[in-house]
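Q: Can I see a sequence and its folded structure?
A: Here is a first one.
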Amino acid sequence: MIRFLDIVFSLFGLIIGFPLLVLLWVIGLFDTGSPLFRQERVGRQQKPFTLVKFRTMKPGTASVATHLADGSAVTPFGRLLRQTKLDELPQLWNVLKGEMSLVGPRPCLLNQTELIEARARLGVFHARPGITGLAQIHGIDMSTPEKLAQTDKTMLDSMTLSKYFKYIVLTVLGRGAGDRVRE
């Protein structure tokens, strides 16, 4: 059922949101010269995939976990995208393709070995990674790998349809702060 909802919502979001996506892409073109950001992440069954987001940092910024990123690298437009979660919209394509879900553990970088090991040990990689989830709405980021992996496991073990909607709504309302860049 959740995969069906992911397909419906991501398709709906991409179609209805297309004018907004184009507008953000054009503004991003002027902001950074390269509005889309692509990065290899660890997906379901530890299979790598390319995550797509709107670029919020200056091109050439080191590719590190968000909690390690330099806050001064975030552009003014990028800051607005992050605050409104609009930088995440291109990930609807990843959801539609089946690489991600709307709700699930945030996909980590290939070099985050401690988090990868903890998630593998707890079986977190059996699920699709998500745009948001329990860790994000509780402000838990990748700086605490063991705690993040355990929170992901708790979310997956207790996932219901109502919690799926709850995590999405809370994120839209601004609670999704688990992967913000430190100032």
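Q: Show me another, different protein.
A: A second, unrelated one:
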Amino acid sequence: MSAATLPTDTLDFTHDATLRAWLASANTLETDFPIQNLPLGMFRRAGSQENFRPGVAIGDQIVDLLAACDAGALPLAVAVSLAGCAHGELNAFMAQGRAARVALRHALSHSLREGSDHQAALQPALVAQAEAEYAVPCRIGDYTDFYTGIHHATTVGKLFRPDNPLLPNYKWVPIGYHGRASSIGVSGQQFVRPRGQTKGPNDDVPVLHPTQRLDYELELGVFVGQGNALGDPIPMAQAEDHAFGLVLLNDWSARDFQAWEYQPLGPFLAKNFASTISPWIVTMEALAPFRAPFMREAGDPSPLPYLDSDSNRQQGGLDIGLEVLIQTQAMRAAGLPPERLSQSSYRDAYWTVAQMITHHTVNGCNLQAGDLLGSGTQSGKKPEQAGSLLELSAGGKIPLTLANGETRTFVQDGDSIILRAHCQRSGFRSIGFGDCQGQVLEAKA
């Protein structure tokens, strides 16, 4: 979809590609956080005992939103909308819906642009990102992981069901399961290798031991903004009004546990030990220039009417480029940078953000501000575009050889996995999500 065909009601002055900030680092081509992005998160000065505070990323800095309010650099109505966020979570702001989010975006765009009268007031409210540490940006009450990556579902299905890789319901219903919210951590998360049960084909009884098939999953996470009342489904026409924004999500998986335990009720210990998200929520408004048509392969069934709308067909997709990198312990010791493992695109998702939200609530389920929806692993059509090691190594049968000579079939102790995402379109400023990095440590005795 070109800039000329994007719906004009989704775009405004904040998306102007010529807009420049008075902060020089926000104007460089390589930054994830130009003035056109303005993602939200929770931070504090590294090593301090301060409460986590709401902030917005701009260039290599963070705008401390509470300090900006105190300095009078934001309109009173915007300052009031941020009340309640001083307690280390964005939920109160998220629950106010799109209008509050847009008002904050507009105010910051005016205050941060070149020539703004608010530069002197905002300057003391800046904190360098290199000097900050981050928290999960909101209280996540519930976490639901979907399975919208059809290429991942097909490839993994072939490993277990070569003649019938996709189950009959896949193209009709957005499949999902309820995950564990308490073990979700922010980028920089470290976790010990989990222990659980496995049973090999020649074993008489299962055994308990650390996973030997630890994997990453390249996903996007959708944070819910305004919720809905119990019993009131959210229709497609309103679904995206309930989406606050997106983060990167690494839904770590123990594939050997999963194979033994997932029947009949689905994932359990294979998934609940850790999930890592990027610290900055890229809002739906920042993503407006990167809309894409929602399209399916010829011959695929059309969604049921409750999962269909003109708007979703025209612009329900999002053109987000994704990549996975690895930095092993040996690479760090040798001073080597992370190495890319794969690239893919969220355009290949089989179900959209709106469809996930609508289906989640069609039975009357009530979503709440801060709930997290995972997209499922996002892989491309080609084998090298896989979003997990399970796919890249053909189920562990074909080791990957890294540039330093190391090989991997699954994640080893000391490995760091980094997820990145970028949006690019002619006529608009490119934006990014920042790194989502997690590291596995040796299992506890």
